[in-house]
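User: My collaborator sent over this chain with a note saying "see what the structure looks like." That's all I know about it. Can you take a look?
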Amino acid sequence: MSNLLSKASIVLTPTAYSDGDLHCIKPNTATGDFDFTRSTTATRINSSGNVESVAANLPRIDYTGGTGQILLEPQTTNLLTYSEDFTEWDKNSGTTLTENNIISPDGTQNATLVVSAGSGSRVGLNTSIVSGTTYTFSVYLKNNGGNTSINIGSHGTTQLETVTINNDWNRYTTTFTASSTTSSSIRIISSGSSINLHSWGAQLEALSFSTSYIPTSGSTVTKNADAANNAGSSDLISSTEGVLYAEISSLSNDGTSRRISLSDGSINNRVSLEIDETANKIKAFISSGGVSQILQHTATDLTQNNKIAIKYKLNDMSIWLNGSEVVTDTSGNMPVGLDRLNFDKGNLSNDFYGKTKCLAVYKEALTDAELTCLTT
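Assistant: Without extra context I'll predict from the sequence alone. Here is the result:
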């Protein structure tokens, strides 16, 4: 593997960043670095396991699961106006709320204790939802000796999911599609005879998956999209032959196209890795003068970590996945003028949203043995 590192012309790992820049470890110059933008603050899970706020235009290295990964997310809004102050939520008679009761997932003492003895004990916050729109509700919960079977979700359209909570902080999520346009109570409700739990960090997004936590206090809050582009140069990227390698996981199979590309700034000349609109489908686009060779393969689960390589050379193209060559193509021309590496389609569209452990570029078509080693 050390030989493969020495051969690479560009290597990005979750190690270094600064205001407006995502730094590559190779080359150790500004030429290899990505221009980074996100015009709002955002949160991450830090190396201590706590939710932490990150300033605008600073990339995020997220440690969900314990391993650092570069986190890139789309624009989204927390539609719940009070994400931490549950005293602003509606509650049934007999439910008591104790603010700032214990340490929350952000490391401060600001989590709420919710206690009630009656059947159907609950807290809820009314929010407008639109028919046909898919939403994801997420909330951090920790049991405090009550019923462990809890329903969360939209009460107004009776779309609740039962989750089983334990004595540790966990983030629970449920996704639903609104069946009507209404003001719905987004609820945490006991499915048994009592509720005794800690709650923190509630979030409702008009997405089919949850993103990093967005705190609110009296109004909805929008987190803008991450964008990382313009790494490399024509000296670091070969148009004749090479390899584009990514160790990545997608945020969701959400029916959108997400790409990482070597290009000339257009889609006419590019080597593009696509997480396709079709669930778990990988595509490679190798385009020369607007004419594309398209290689495709269906993987098992692209929301899990996968090692993917695209090899390109005149009449010799392939996709490698987790140690195996899965698609080949022996007829196709090569692009010209490749001079940049982007987390997008090549022309600042179809941004990649997901987690990245490693991204690398090679100026030569690696051997089968090298590609096996690289992707294993």
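A starting point for your reply to your collaborator: The radius of gyration is 23 Å.
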